[in-house]
Amino acid sequence: MKETGSIRFDDQVIAVTGAGRGLGRAFSLALAERGARLLLLDNGCDAQGQGCDDSLAQEVAGLIRNLDGEALPLCVDVTDYSALADALATGVAHFGRINSVVACAGILIPQQVRCDLGEYRRMMEVNHFGTVNLVHAAMEQLTEQQGHIVVCSGFSGLYGDRDLGGFGASMMANRGFMLSVAQRMEEAGIRCNALCPSASTRMVDKLYSDEQRQKLQISAVVPALLYLLSRDAPNGATLTAAAGQFTLARTVETHGIRLKPENLRPEELCLAWDELDSESVVTPYASFRERIRRLLQR
Fold first, then answer.
1. Residues 126, 180 within the same domain
2. Residue 183, domain CATH
3. What angle separates helix 165-185 from helix 130-145, to the nearest 10 degrees?
4. Backbone phi, then psi, for 163, in 5-degree steps?
5. What confidence tens digit (pLDDT) does each residue in 231-281 have?
6. pTM for this structure?
7. 234 and 270 belong to one structural domain
8. First to last CA, the chain
9. Are 265 and 227 within one domain?
10. How confident is the model at residue 168 (pLDDT cuts 50, 70, 90)?
């Protein structure tokens, strides 16, 4: 095991979206405790993306100041690229730079297969395009500072869930975006990773049983975020964090089969399916909920 000193963020300026509640709030406070200066971005909407309350980010900023830290809270909608770019420019004017960004803003609306497509699009706008907006708007600063990017993904994106089609799609979109950014920007010294957390927050609280809520504490996710922003962070990783367990999620394939040109017919694929399906190299999970159940049974 490699050795490491205390992970600190002194002289680092980190922008966090969704900083007013839940994971974003916990991440911001933990970063401040370790010396970071925070640009807190949150419009204070509810879990379904409605409303606006600028007091939430203000409250977190107050808590950070009580820790003798420094924070600038700004009320901004991550779906509004111009407003988000202006907020980042305000942060640069205030702090002098932005070293890293954490894309944590998100909404969740449970859905069936037949659903309100407007709600589906709203989740994609906030969860995915809000992430893309942040990274694009901050890229000049990130390149200058050789900074870090952490985007939030989710188990429902990795494994699916019968009630979270739109949310899961936005989470998987974030992971695909992260993988592309990590490959493209590595030569510029930027590290981009995805955090796939599961914790009992207001957004997902109804999905869990009482026992699961007790175990899925937000504090158990925080170490993953801190590591992904550290100087020892990897690049292009998807780190899962839930109930004190951490894993790396990877896209894998079985060894596969090769059909001869004369056998390129669907019937041949049907005959070979058992062979194709027999070489799983990772533990399969049927859904996000099964992933959590089996996690907590260990």
1. yes
2. 3.40.50.720
3. 20
4. -110, 5
5. 999 999 999 999 999 999 988 777 778 899 999 999 999 999 988 887 655
6. 0.91
7. no
8. 23
9. no
10. very high
